[in-house]
Amino acid sequence: MHLESVLRSSARHAKPAGLTLQYGTAGFRTKAEHLDHVMHRMGLLAVLRSKKTKFIIGVMVTASHNPEEDNGVKLVDPMGEMLVQEWEIYATNLANAEEHELQTVLTNIIKQEAINMQDESSVAIGRDTRPSSESLSLAVIDGVTALESKYQDYGLVTTPQLHYIVCCRNTDGRYGEPSVEGYYQKLSKAFNDLVKQSPECQAEKECLSIDGANGIGSLKIKEMERYLQPRLSLQLFNDGSNGRLNYMCGADYVKVQQKPPEGIDMKPNERCCSFDGDADRIVYYYKDSGDGFHLLDGDKIATLISTFIKELLVKVGLELNMAVVQTAYANGSSTRYLEEVMKVPVYCAKTGVKHLHHKAQEFDIGVYFEANGHGTVLFSKTAEEQIRQLTKTGASEESRKAAQMLENVINLINQTVGDAISDMLVIEAILSLKGLTIQKWNEIYTDLPNRQLKVTVADRKVIDTTDAERRTVKPPGLQEKIDDLVKKYNMSRAFVRPSGTEDVVRVYAEADTQENADALAHEVCLAVYHLAGGVGDQPKPLR
Ligand code: G16
């Protein structure tokens, strides 16, 4: 095949010689100035994937929770899932090929996947609000057009909106109208129908404060707000009008720092939530009248949603198998509560939505959430059909009503990927229907004190993990050291893993008190620093 036009186009997006990047937890992510060639090549790869699958493929330009100067790319497969893992190696090979190797790498992918280059292809492109995102999305388009593919540029969208659009287009609209407007209509209809069933319609009276992380989520929630009134009133902070993206705000900042974002006006006992930079994560929080800060993270969200669904299943009289999928970061109390009180099976997957999503697909209803607030609920086709049937044929008024609520949840939750806006609406609806305050929700179980820290090392690949990232197998001696440290504290647990989105090693520790969790996290940081080639100053204690 003739790839001259690809090579000519590639020369305009030349790869800096010697630069190598790894496909990480959610695609490529690094400083924006290193990504022009990667974007162009991911445009090429999306076309190949589209020809192979005969479906539209999505390319989202975003670095999500990372600082504003970073950027990245997430590839979206036909049903709105993350790129299938078998293709990650092609992505890595393409991104790292020197200019003179590009033709061979492309030809190899085409051969290995037996792609017919005469087949049609189409790519859907979206981007976040970073200053670098517009030019990087043009680089994607250059890659797509170099292979003479069709494409549609959706411009500024949240990551979950692009996932939704890809799924809608590939299912001939059965999942919804393939547009941002269609997304607003589908979600707001499901939300309004659901909340309407609330006896007191509490949501009409309450206001939710949203920290938009100065990102795309704030733009989109402004557009959507009119669809939600009067049932939900919102107050938006960090809307991007002056602050920097993710700087001292956003879901990751709030979760990791365990404190409120800057720029939000928090009134005692009022519900607040934070989105991340591309609006695929959400965490809730409030401050009490004594100024104490309370965080309700992905674990609390998973518990709230799975409890609600389980209660409805009982009313409907359906025996569907439901499970919750978490990661190693899940608070020990949440896992215990789900297993022992809720009697819901819990599974632990590796960090990364792609891993959790995969596991959750094994159940009739799979609820997956990372502690950082990234998650959703998946309903199998059988579960959806049975629930829809029972909205008409349920044995009693009560069971038909419960089936309708479940049907509304199915329509409201974005099943393609974790979605801050959709999750927020599900949570708001549940709180309203159950007449739950954020304090009561928080009291369902008490989190074990925990701490998350980062250590910078020369090469984070020296750390290798096993057992869903709960134990290290490399470098030698590190796991033994962590085991010894954990033994010093009560109710303690700790693990380390190389981040797949930042050039750091992440450290997590929990224990009976905050002081102990902090001390354990610090000691584990020191172990990583000494045994895994720490750079810069030695980690300092937190207090
Ligand atoms: C991405 C992934 C998440 C993951 C997070 C942190 O989130 O989609 O599944 O938890 O990165 O990953 P790591 O600890 O490997 O850096 P986002 O919201 O940044 O795209």
In short:
This protein has 543 residues and is an alpha/beta fold. The chain has helices spanning 4-11, 36-53, 88-96, 102-112, 133-146, 159-170, 180-196, 216-228, 251-257, 298-316, 332-341, 353-360, 381-393, 397-412, 420-434, 438-442, 478-487, 514-531; strands spanning 28-31, 57-61, 70-76, 122-127, 150-156, 207-211, 233-237, 272-275, 282-287, 293-296, 322-326, 346-348, 365-369, 375-379, 450-455, 464-466, 471-474, 493-498, 505-510.
Q: How would you describe what is shown here?
A:
The chain has 543 residues and is of the alpha/beta class. The protein folds into 4 domains: 3-156, Alpha-D-Glucose-1,6-Bisphosphate, subunit A, domain 3 (Alpha-D-Glucose-1,6-Bisphosphate, Chain A, domain 3); 181-295, 3-Layer(aba) Sandwich (Alpha-D-Glucose-1,6-Bisphosphate, Chain A, domain 3); 298-419 and 432-442, Alpha-D-Glucose-1,6-Bisphosphate, Chain A, domain 3; 450-531, Alpha-D-phosphohexomutase, C-terminal domain (TATA-Binding Protein, 2-Layer Sandwich). Helix content is 41%, strand content 18%. The protein has 18 helices and 19 strands. The protein has a 5-stranded mixed β-sheet with strand order 1-3-2-4-5, sandwiched between helices. A hairpin with a 5-residue loop joins strand 9 and strand 10 (293-296). Helix 2 packs across helix 5. The protein starts with a helix and ends in a 12-residue tail after the last helix. The relative contact order is 0.10. The model has no long low-confidence stretch (mean pLDDT 96). 1,6-di-O-phosphono-alpha-D-glucopyranose binds next to loops.
